[in-house]
Amino acid sequence: MSTPSPIPPPNDRRSSRASSNAGPPSSNLNVPSEPSDLLVVGGPPSSPSPLALRASNSPSSKRRKSRAAKVPPDVHMLEYVSACDSNLVCLICHSPFDRPVKLPCEHYFCRECVDHAWDAQQEDLRSCPTCRTKVDPQKDLSPVPRIIETMLDELVVKCPNTKTGCDWVDQRVNVHDHVMLYCEYTLVECPSTDCRLPISQKDFHKGCLHSTVSCEHCHASLMKKDLEVGSVMSICPNRSTNCPHCFIELLRLDLKPHVKDVCPMVSIPCSGAIVGCKVTAERIEVEEHEKTCPMATMAPFFREQQARVERSEARLDPLSRKIGILEDGLTNITSMLYPANGNDSSFPVTNPLDPNSSEAFPPASLMPTPDFRLPPASFPPVPQSSDTTQAQPPFDSQVHHLLTLHESLRDEVSRVSNALTELEGRTSMTIMNENQRVKEDMLHTNAAINGMRMQLHWLMSATLQQRSASAAGSSTARAGSSTGPSASGSGTQGASSRASATFRAPIRRLSDSTRQDVKL
Amino acid sequence: MSTGAKKRIMKEYAECAADTPAGMKIIFDEQNMTKWEVLLDGPDQSIYAGGHFKLEITFPNEYPFKPPVVSFKTKIYHPNVSNDDKGSMCLGLLRPDEWKPPNKVVSVLRLIQTLLIEPDIDDSIEPSIANEYKENRKEFDKNAKDWVKRYAK
Ligand SMILES: [Zn+2]
Ligand SMILES: [Zn+2]
Ligand SMILES: [Zn+2]
Ligand SMILES: [Zn+2]
Ligand SMILES: [Zn+2]
Ligand SMILES: [Zn+2]
Ligand SMILES: [Zn+2]
């Protein structure tokens, strides 16, 4: 690996410079006034891998030796001000070439990139990453044409410390010197012996700023270096700041209320805006304007008025719903009471507009047609001076209307209940009458049944006598039967029974007499 | 992963974002820039038209010296995409021995689109699907369209 090659070793970051200086690679990097061991950059020339080189450059490995060691800028990480010619871009890292080398196949790469590519390949199989032509890294690498070096040197870049505050922009060839020698924002190691934290070059002379301090205003703990750079000024609520509108100085935490309520320069609308004033200006002007603006004077009254109207409207809503329910109930009752003629002329509700008519109850046929529409808004005259009462009258008359409706409903209900009582009396009368009649009927029937029973009893005993007589002798039987027909009052029947068999006679008689009794 | 590789990925993303191939959308997370999510619409002239496929492109730590890894997150019936939960694709410039550091992700994306239009039968990862493509094109088309309907809508 240490065989001399036609191109400079990877640790020499500025090849063109190094060759022109003709000194050791690190000589041009030293701060002239300091001992040479303070700023050792890069490794020994034989250092094989750029990665290893970068690691050796990191502050951790150099800490012991060099207290103020700076990290040289990584050309791959530079930010270019303008897009660069695509021919100057390495196909591996997609950045403009950094110390490019030429392969035998005329393909160019950054030295570092091609080394990386070869790290992944076997030692004897190294080839061009683009065309795979076999390459021997020891012999086949050659420097790129001078003109390409120049073009690369002239690319304009930003300082790598742009983010921390440096605004340096120049040709790439100068970036190394800028970062290593002049840039105030390059991080160096803290000057204190036992502190190894990085600090910007510009704060180096202030000693160690890495002690934690507590903000005297808000008691947040901060690094002293942050206090120094003043970043705390933009965080601490107790630090003073300037109002962006009027530029007076005030504490940061007071800024919001100041802008909202006090700041004379912040632009606000006239307070008469709700009535229609279009003026919007800085607070002092608006205050001046409001003194003369009629709309601004009216605004508080208007606002009060509006609140009142809103309140009334809110109250109106449940009321109108209640009316709806009442109306429905009324219609139902009406149609129940007067199913034939509906709720037209006979509905005995007084006109709600006429408060007198609700007292006396005219006959149903003479009742006026009920009118549920709201009365036309008839306000009592309002005194001009008090404009706050204007919302009241329509509200009052509606309540009145409702009350009247309610009253007539109540009357109607009592009328209905009277009618019901009367109906009940009449019904019970009818029922009693009917009862009487039924009772009498039942008495009649009972009497008839009793008569029948007697007759039957008599007949039965007669038959028994007859039977016993016939059993004793025919002469006595004839005598017994001769008495039967005379008691029954029917000569023909008695004759027929005599003619027929003596056993059947009582049965037929029984059935016949029953029929006759029912007919009675 | 080296800062150089990260920078290159960033640059490639900027390039892709400025000139994304038609029918593709790249979702890039700066916190995890080594994993790109690609939403790919099936090319109109292919049987995958109407399907929406999700791919993942993972950059190895050695990128650009090793190729990025492409895997289909949406199942696809294709001879060059492995029919498993990885859905990996490994052919052409995506092979480690074929990959060259100067290759770019855009060319990978273009390759994927081309393969959806015309599979590479001689370099298939699913021989049975490749066979079907060769011998029974009708059946292959039907299956592929079926999968699009089932997985890629
Ligand atoms: Zn390069
Ligand atoms: Zn080549
Ligand atoms: Zn600087
Ligand atoms: Zn310190
Ligand atoms: Zn504070
Ligand atoms: Zn102010
Ligand atoms: Zn005004």
Automatic annotation (TrEMBL), chain A:
Compositional bias segments (type: Low complexity): 17-28, 49-60, 469-501
Pro residues bias spans: 1-10
Pfam family, one: zf-RING_UBOX
InterPro entries referenced in this protein's UniProt entry, alphabetically: Znf-RING_euk (IPR027370), Znf_RING (IPR001841), Znf_RING/FYVE/PHD (IPR013083), Znf_RING_CS (IPR017907), Znf_TRAF (IPR001293)
GO function terms (MF aspect): zinc ion binding
Positions annotated as zinc finger (TRAF-type): 236-287
Residue numbers spanned by region Disordered: 1-71, 347-392, 469-520
Polar residues bias spans: 347-359
Start and end residues of each RING-type domain: 90-132
Composition bias type Basic and acidic residues, residue spans: 509-520
Name recorded for this polypeptide: TRAF-type zinc finger protein
Alphabetically ordered keywords of this record: Metal-binding, Zinc, Zinc-finger
TrEMBL record, chain B:
Start and end residues of each UBC core domain: 4-153
Enzyme Commission number(s) from the entry: 2.3.2.23
Cross-referenced InterPro entries: Ub_conjugating_enzyme (IPR050113), UBC (IPR000608), UBQ-conjugating_enzyme/RWD (IPR016135)
UniProt-recorded Gene Ontology molecular function terms: ATP binding; ubiquitin conjugating enzyme activity
Keywords: ATP-binding, Nucleotide-binding, Transferase, Ubl conjugation pathway
Domain of life: Eukaryota
Name of the protein: E2 ubiquitin-conjugating enzyme
The species this protein was found in: Aaosphaeria arxii CBS 175.79
Lineage, opening ranks: Eukaryota, Fungi, Dikarya, Ascomycota, Pezizomycotina
